[in-house]
Amino acid sequence: MERFPNCLIGIFDQTSSNEWLCFLSFPFTLGFRFPFSDFIMDFFRTTGLSFSQTMVWRVLLVLDRIKNNHVLDLCVNDLPVVYRLRSHESSRFLFYSTTNNPLILRATSNEEEWKTKFFFVKRSSIPGGESFPVKWLTKGRI
Fold first, then answer.
1. How many alpha carbons fall within 13 Å on the CB side of residue 60?
2. Count of C-beta atoms within a 10 Å radius of residue 83
3. Which residues are CB-neighbours of 139 under 8 A, at least 6 positions away?
4. What is the mean pLDDT of residues 61-73?
């Protein structure tokens, strides 16, 4: 992995790169490892969002751990029952609860300084890197 200087922070903001894939550091501080689990990858395939476009990592982590530890038959298509994707701050996406009783409490907030904590990986250096989204979407698909 190569780390780019903070002066290039805006480079991942709604730009495309066929060579580089941008990752926020935040999910890795929560305990995520790459390659992500099938459930997490299915979320990004289903929604079409890029890894750096979402602020949903805490909810995904909890759901992924519940699914793995309790062998639940949970899939991404089940998420709209309890969560909707909502865009904010120019095509970044959050989950918001569709009920008054959220499935997971206090998991929708994210790290305050996420904009300064990211890194780029050459797409060709990771399995399937060429298949990840190149451009940001303005509308998530779930």
1. 27
2. 22
3. 87
4. 91
Q: Which position has the higher pLDDT, 42 or 118?
A: 42
CA 134 to chain centroid: 14
CB atoms within 10 A of CB 23: 19
**Which segment of 13-27, 37-51, 111-125 scores lowest on mean pLDDT?**
13-27
pLDDT digits (tens, 9 = 90+) for 25-60: 989 998 999 999 999 999 999 998 888 888 889 899
Distance CA 44, CA 36 (A): 10
**In this structure, what token pair is assigned to residue 24?**
């926020």
Structure tokens at 69: 């530890």
Strands (E), the chain: 20-24, 83-88, 92-97, 118-122
Own/partner long-range contacts of 41-45 (Cβ < 8 Å, ≥24 apart) = 42/75, 42/76, 43/76, 43/79, 44/132, 44/133
Tell me the C-alpha distance between 130 and 142, whole Å.
23
User: How far apart are the two ends of the chain, measured CA to CA in Å?
Assistant: 31
**What CA–CA distance (Å, rounded) separates 98 from 80?**
8
